[in-house]
């Protein structure tokens, strides 16, 4: 769950004569430097090793997509987008906006902006679009009487659940429940999911401490009303440096990505963070030193979670399978297995945050499946590509009384209905398999570019299409993203100097070719 | 924003021979005690002072409603509802559920359960349904191409807003923006709205402290990454005892209703609460002592918010116009005006939480309009009846840099489109005026019942249809709610021993008559 793009003022335009005139020569037109904005990308750039491969034998998941990006305006954002954002800015802050979309014209992997520029979208509404723009399956579902009913009669699921809710849960979330987790708590967004999961962890810890079926003491009940101990206990969730788990007060105390996300906001000062492995890529070429780095981090993590005679007890540990906002940082299955062993050893609950990694992009439906844990996590949280949010858990993590982990809506059935449709499409077209296969191709070819332009891009890494690579500095990264966008390819930054790829599940090799061609162009121009 | 109903296990049934056989006599059938479940309510009870009035001259807002409630099963919940909840309980905790709804059959003010029982609904999915079940206007909106587009292409509004978003904001939230507040931050639920508003308040405070256009120091940036001061500052939001502002970690630290909402969850121990006036009702009959009580509370509030040489600075104060979950506690416009003066005097921001009171039920669109403040609040938060959530604010409360108060979706355009439809219906049918007029009638008649059955119900109070009354104890309150439900009227509890009425905006005098008749029946049977 990560949200920050590159820091860039959208209303400051790049011009063709600056960043976007590719200094190299166009293949087949040796004396002409291409103006990338005046013509369709495929014809104006149409060169590369990648575009020639076509991959025309692949089954199309989306019908009616354009053949490639198309940039029409001399500056990005173009004049209409600029005006549109300026107008919106009178009501809401738009400084983070990089684009204003024309959703009528967007389709599949392609997003169109207000100026008619068409981009191949590898960022996809911050990694949250699963099936592409204007998915036919989702449109059909939107028109169904069930969807209309749930849209106009939004239930308070905790007090007045509707007759079909259990069936919807079974057809959606429960049909892909991680092994060992038979319950689902439905929520509204990634931050709320993580925070309600933390609440469950705290209540479980206190319940065990006072005896599983014991009454809550009057002292606990009276002191909590004043935000004081022992009723409001000094307990902690542990997280990792570089981890991102949301932006509300509890989740933000477990987020450790960028200072601007955290500064000025009161935090739980005893909620500790432990270093996450800082590995070298490609992983298989640096096994010995990576093993050492993981062992170092595990030792520190164990030290922090070990019960102490004084200090704040660690109730749960939250971890992303791949740190996303923090810079696409990976760790080995062995690391996670040993981390799980440590949580078991020290009575700490393990929460796996699959808000960004879940629902297929890594080539597994849940990224943590690849760890082959001997004991499943206690809680797995989700949002984004499922459109719906929430967390899976063991039955023991229910509270001892109703209303304790509760809110008005308790999730949203329309998003659960969409999750059901998304799952149906994923299964029908083996979109998880597609992410694995397309990702393998993408990684191989990106590695080739990495080797071809040493010192330009580095540390190509990823699972499935959930990939990233580094640039030397934050500035060169920001420039790379801008240049890709000018070539009609939308990506996002993560960490201090990485670019992350978060394409949809319908991203295929033919789309990868266009992306790879653009990357090579930018590398050449660097 | 309040969510707790009466504590009651839904699967434990009441039986006709117990709670629901009304001991009094049926008017016109002097020798027969009515069996309330076997026949339509209107014919089986059909007696009272109220039902005879009919109010047939009123324009109907909803077509196709039944003429009254209808209870078919001998126990509530009935066997199908029991089985349905039991089935759902294998996946999710259902202990708070009082009903399982059949939304196909529900219409307008009437909700139908799985056993075919029809209830007049005065609780309305925890005060969140604005136009009634299966509203034709909302169904038409759900079928619109704009709604379908926004449903299937859910945008990350902060980075890729769509072309029609500004227009949607203008047609929805901004068309009813509270005086003086020109900006709207869109969110997903009441808790998130309040928490992002708190974040804005903290950032604004720190910005002013360091100089409005000054840079953030490196010390602040580095320490916040460890959840330590000065970057993670010791600052507080002040709230009121009995206030409810949400259930996530920041909002829960400002919630002071029931201990079970708060116990076992770490809290910000320096976020103080001040007593809210404990007034006597009816307000106009106890003016002198109520004035004194308000003055007492204002003095304590001022003492807490006054800047001190040490201790945690109070950055903002959050207050509900009517404490809802806390027991429908009122205060006078003068109290709020003086509170506003105090916040201005001591440099504390004023956040008005209109999550439950907003969007018409009190007879004003925003409940705080009735205060006639000389200076508007700094922030007004909303959710529930708007379906969409968020907060209005002054432009100065924007952060100094993008991404600081941010998340993936930043609200939801489909809910904003619904808000637009809701507003259209409110204006077309003057539903705020209807709430005022129906509420005045309801209050007058409830007061008559209160006087007729002294010691049974008391403290009838409210604005518009946002009403409540007290029972002597929590137990008698819970029993009263259960008996009303058995008579086909769905209400909810609040505070220790109150019943709150949260009907829809399409609740009319004819519905009030049915409710009043049921209340009188239960009073008679007490």
TrEMBL record, chains A, B:
Sequence segments annotated as region (Disordered): 57-78
Superkingdom as given in the UniProt entry: Eukaryota
Keyword Transferase: yes
PANTHER family according to UniProt: 4-AMINOBUTYRATE AMINOTRANSFERASE, MITOCHONDRIAL, AMINOTRANSFERASE
Gene source species: Linnemannia gamsii
Protein name per its UniProtKB record: 4-aminobutyrate aminotransferase
Reaction equation(s) it catalyzes: 4-aminobutanoate + 2-oxoglutarate = succinate semialdehyde + L-glutamate
One Pfam family named in its UniProt record: Aminotran_3
This enzyme's EC code(s): 2.6.1.19
UniProt keyword list: Aminotransferase, Pyridoxal phosphate, Transferase
Family, per entry: Belongs to the class-III pyridoxal-phosphate-dependent aminotransferase family.
Cofactors that this protein relies on: pyridoxal 5'-phosphate
CDD domains cross-referenced by the UniProt entry: OAT_like
């Amino acid at each position: 769950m990560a949200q920050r793009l590159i820091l860039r003022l959208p209303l400051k335009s790049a011009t063709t004569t600056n960043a976007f005139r590719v200094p190299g020569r166009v293949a087949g037109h040796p004396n002409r430097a291409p103006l990338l904005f005046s013509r369709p990308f495929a014809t104006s750039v149409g060169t590369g090793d990648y575009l020639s491969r076509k991959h025309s034998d692949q089954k199309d998941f989306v019908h009616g997509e354009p053949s490639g990006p198309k940039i029409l305006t001399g500056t990005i954002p173009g004049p209409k987008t600029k005006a549109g954002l300026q107008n919106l800015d009178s009501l809401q802050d738009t400084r983070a906006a990089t684009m204003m979309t024309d959703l009528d014209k967007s389709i599949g992997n392609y997003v169109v902006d207000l100026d008619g520029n068409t981009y191949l979208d590898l960022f996809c509404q911050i990694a949250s679009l699963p099936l592409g723009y204007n998915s036919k399956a989702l449109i059909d579902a939107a028109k169904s009487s069930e969807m209309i009913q749930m849209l106009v009669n939004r239930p308070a699921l905790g007090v007045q659940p509707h007759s079909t809710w259990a069936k919807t849960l079974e057809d959606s979330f429960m049909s892909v429940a991680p092994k060992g987790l038979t319950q689902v708590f439905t929520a509204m967004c990634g931050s709320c999911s993580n925070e309600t999961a933390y609440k469950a962890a705290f209540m479980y810890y206190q319940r065990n401490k006072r005896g599983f079926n014991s009454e809550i003491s009057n002292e606990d009940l009276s002191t909590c009303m004043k935000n004081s101990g022992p009723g409001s206990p000094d307990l902690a969730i542990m997280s990792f440096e570089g981890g991102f788990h949301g932006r509300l007060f509890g989740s933000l105390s477990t987020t450790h990505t960028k200072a601007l996300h955290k500064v000025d906001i009161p935090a739980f000062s005893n909620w500790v963070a432990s270093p996450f492995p800082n590995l070298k890529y490609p992983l298989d070429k640096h096994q010995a030193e990576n093993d050492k780095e993981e062992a170092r981090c595990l030792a520190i993590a164990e030290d922090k979670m070990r019960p102490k005679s004084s200090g704040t007890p660690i109730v749960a540990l939250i971890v992303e399978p791949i740190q996303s906002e923090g810079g696409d940082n990976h760790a080995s299955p062995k690391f996670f297995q040993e981390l799980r062993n440590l949580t078991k050893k020290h009575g700490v609950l393990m929460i796996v945050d699959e808000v960004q990694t879940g629902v297929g992009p890594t080539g597994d439906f849940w990224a943590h499946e690849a760890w082959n844990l001997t004991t499943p996590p206690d809680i797995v949280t989700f949002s984004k590509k499922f459109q719906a949010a929430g967390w899976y858990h063991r039955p023991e993590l229910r509270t001892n009384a109703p209303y304790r982990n509760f809110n008005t809506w308790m999730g949203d059935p329309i998003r659960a209905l969409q999750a059901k449709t998304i799952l149906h499409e994923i299964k029908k077209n083996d979109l998880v398999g597609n992410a694995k296969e397309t990702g393998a191709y993408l990684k191989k070819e990106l590695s080739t570019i990495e080797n071809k332009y040493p010192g330009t891009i580095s540390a190509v890494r990823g699972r499935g299409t959930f990939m990233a690579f580094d640039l030397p500095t934050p500035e060169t990264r920001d420039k790379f993203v801008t240049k890709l966008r000018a070539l009609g390819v939308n990506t996002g930054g993560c960490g201090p100097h990485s670019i992350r790829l978060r394409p949809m599940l319908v991203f295929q090799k033919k789309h990868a070719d266009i992306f790879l061609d653009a990357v090579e162009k930018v590398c050449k121009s660097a």
